[in-house]
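Would you mind writing out the residues of a protein together with its fold in token form for me to study?
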Amino acid sequence: MASPAATPPTRTRQNRQTRDAERTRAAILDAATQEFARHGLGGARVDRIAAKADINKRMLYHYFGAKEALFLAVLEATYARIRTAEQALSLLDADPMESVRRLVTFTWRYYLEHPEFLTLLNSENLYRARHLKRSRRLRAMNSPLIDTLAEVLKRGERDGVFRSGVDPLQLYVSIAALSYFYLSNNHTLSTIFGRDLSTPSARRTRLVHMTTVVLGYLRP
């Protein structure tokens, strides 16, 4: 019986180089995400990113170009992660009210577990989304979620549990805003109102409140 043909050395070498390149890109993106989240675009330093990624600066420029191009790559990767996580919610596999409840809960918990998402958004807003406007990937990432939410709203309207005429984009922005404002302004709000809004109890109360507000708005 003939033995299987061995993998050509050239192909093996190419596969290894591809894996090495992917690991290097991932290491750079991870280091850059931490750096931009902590210092913003203006305060971030390529030297520190390269050191954290354990590469030299020339290698970083080879993969991503200038610092602003790397910042855009970080933003795209950050959005890709949350969109992938949202798809795992399987919103169309549940009844409409449960789907919206899942989305509210997911958004809240994701922001809590990924504070870098909020800080990167804050940083990009200082630049009036200058970098995101150059992205070819962002709209394709965001559209499926809005389309899915639109279908959830249609089902809820047909079932008689949701009001008619709800704009899915406006609803999503409201859901995101209810979590985003509370968390991004947590320190100032806690100081102004004399209550620690970061305790587990306060956070549980906030999630119940947001869910009640959103579902209350959607009822006929």
Remarks:
- The chain is about 75% helix and 0% strand.
